[in-house]
Specification:
Oligomer: single chain
Strand content: over 45%
Number of helices: 0
Strand order of the largest sheet: 1-8-3-6
Largest sheet: 4 strands, antiparallel
Shape: globular
Radius of gyration: 13 Å
Structural class: mainly beta
Helix content: under 10%
Number of strands: 8
Order of helices and strands: EEEEEEEE
Distance between the termini: 9 Å
Low-confidence stretches: none
Length: about 100
């Protein structure tokens, strides 16, 4: 794998499916800026869609804060926010050149 280049943050503020990156990389963490309401959840997948490998689930109705992972993904990174009132979050990830 080529060398580490930089962090890029992807802001997400609405329920739905977001393809954050295609190809390999590292999810540094998830920063929840404002918490979700009414059973809002965040799931992240190694894949180009939500049919990829589920890597984790977060109950976003907890207090805002940073969840650090430094977790690799190979195919791509997809984030799904669902149910209730969405959070405002940022997903910083490393990218390679």
């Amino acid at each position: 794998m080529p060398g580490f280049q930089s962090y890029i943050g992807t802001p997400i503020a609405a329920n739905g499916t977001t393809l954050v990156r295609t190809g390999p990389g590292i999810l540094h963490g998830i920063t929840i800026n404002t918490k979700g309401v009414s059973s809002n959840t965040l799931k992240f997948y190694d894949g180009l869609t939500a049919s990829g490998t589920l890597k984790g689930t977060i109950d976003t109705t907890a207090a805002p804060g940073m969840w650090q992972f430094d977790m690799s993904f190979e195919t791509g990174l997809t984030i799904v926010l669902a149910t209730g009132t969405s959070v405002s979050l940022t997903a910083p990830r490393e990218y390679y050149v």
